[in-house]
Write a structure and sequence with these properties.
single chain, Rossmann fold, 2 domains, 8 helices, 32% helix, 20% strand, globular
Length: 261
Amino acid sequence: MEKLFGLIGEKLSHTYSPFIHRKIMEELNIDGHYGLFQVKEENLRNVVPGLRALGYDGINVTIPYKTDIIKYLDYLSPEAEKIDAVNVVALGKDGMATGYNTDYHGFGMMLKNARININGESAAILGTGGASKAVSQYLRDNGIKNITFITRDSAAAKQKFPEDEAITYDKLNKLKGCSTIINTTPVGMYPYIQAVPIEEKYLMNFSQAVDLIYNPSETLFINGLYMLIAQAVKSQEIWNETEISESVTENILNLLKQEVL
């Protein structure tokens, strides 16, 4: 019987997810389909019951619904509850919808692949949206010394992340001592590829620059393509209750570069 998966978000024209999930399912010999669903905010409440009625087994969630979807779920995994953001929903046979956060896992895999060590270091995070929650939680769980959020509204950021520092973009030139800067905003994502989250001259203050953006496949930062694939692999592990070799992520990354990029 064909398994059904998909992605919900506001705008999905930039996504590589169908290709990635199709390749993962081929690796696992799963007969499955991965669909795309552009959803308006006022219709978000109908997503879970609607896809369950259509027989879907699970969905990914992207911008801007990673936090808003939570109110329509029955359960959260421990990491999703701690992060307060969801990018994977499993629609179980028991009729329950459970939210997970595989951005956390994918971000860790990307750092490992890029040989970036954050233990005992300081990091700056651009943006305070759903993705930034997973990134900051991973950093805290893995020995980061301190985190500074860079945002348009430092007071709101401080309220959201009270244990961390927060500054506005115009104070970026005064930020010292951070080894790594991480862009969790959509600035620079296709089709607005000429936009940059910060001026290039400020990157000289950091030894490592990481981007969650994956389209375009090359940015001023270390690209988020590996993270995208790693979190997709983790999604399939959850939906299919299986373990997938790390080599699958590398295989699909190579296929994506050969066939799509």
